[in-house]
């Protein structure tokens, strides 16, 4: 997942998640690449789901200048 802090809020996007439905089939383990974007506001201790990215991404890097 990519992570960036902007304006005191933490944004997390993309990454991989274990596909639980496929994990038990003949010992097969599958991961799903994510298109999700979430924002954490530490002042309010609240996570917010933001609009999804156009494409799934994993192993991303974020830079804030």
TrEMBL record:
Keywords: Kelch repeat
InterPro entries linked to this entry: Kelch-typ_b-propeller (IPR015915), Kelch_1 (IPR006652)
Organism annotation: Arion vulgaris
One Pfam short name: Kelch_1
Gene from which this protein is expressed: ORF25277
Record-linked SUPFAM superfamilies: Kelch motif (SSF117281)
Protein name as annotated: Uncharacterized protein
